[in-house]
Amino acid sequence: MELLGIHHITAFTKDIQQCYDFYHHILGMRLVKQTVDHQNPAVPHLYFGDRTGQPGTVLSFVEGTFNDGNDAIYAYCLRVPTDRSLYAYKLRFDDFNVKHDAVIQLNGRHALPFYDCDDRLVYLISDETNTGVQAGTPDDESPVASIHQIYGVGPVLLTVRHSLITASVLHQILQLERTGEYMHRASQEPVQVFSMATGGNGGEIHLLQQHTEQAVQTGIHHAAFRVRDLESARQLLDKAEIQHSGIVDSHYFKSLYFRDLSGVLFELGTDEPGLTVDEEIDTLGQSLSLPDHLENRRQALTDQLKPIRKDAL
């Protein structure tokens, strides 16, 4: 199985308007798609990313409630160009009263922990000393200067009670290489680093064994990885007798979902056709996008969904 890097992260948000305000107006990410949850079209689904919404830069949010669980994706990182970018965002966070901690190191790279509109732990991580999977393209219309903008997603941080199980899936099934280890700042437990493709921030999974029985509540639904050949991936999962969703057409890419025995939900997705399949780059995210099978319900869904107010904070 050949993975090309992180594809996207999907999480729940308790309030879609607050989510838009935070991720666009404060973090400066571009809204690249307004759509709905295809399984429940009454629920809004927003995608944020770089200027073009390319895989590897995208966060998506579905309005809903968080799920408790011990085995989880406990945090994700957002890539910024330099160490100086972290301090530019720190000043921005102070201006907008965003809770944040001091700059730390994650796997030898500087990172700024903060808490988003859902009080979820997120890290800004510097690409200054990073190599590997390339980042995206800045957006000229962002409220954040292009030299500091978020332009990629990753690494993804996992915490599970049975790390050997998840490590086995990452290495033997997904064929990631174990490329490093560092100490988790709070718990002083070792964090294993697994890399896909050319590695770096856009191609790393960090795995921490959770020793506490206390449930965590992150609201992160799944992590998706870019795959070159989805059919080959399906066959590999079948051979390993790992249950999966089968190939699903989500309109913007094809993918399949599976869980490891610790309960972490992973998605393998194609790059094509991409978020520009139904919108031009210059107009991404400006109107409601629907897959073909929901077009006949456009008016009803438009009336039902809460409109996103896009005026500045």
From TrEMBL:
Pfam families: Glyoxalase. Keywords: Dioxygenase, Oxidoreductase. The keyword Oxidoreductase applies. Residues 5-127, 152-271 form the VOC domain. GO terms for molecular function: dioxygenase activity. The keyword Membrane does not apply. InterPro entries: Extradiol_RC_dioxygenase (IPR052537), Glyas_Bleomycin-R_OHBP_Dase (IPR029068), Glyas_Fos-R_dOase_dom (IPR004360), VOC_core (IPR037523). This is Ring-cleaving dioxygenase.
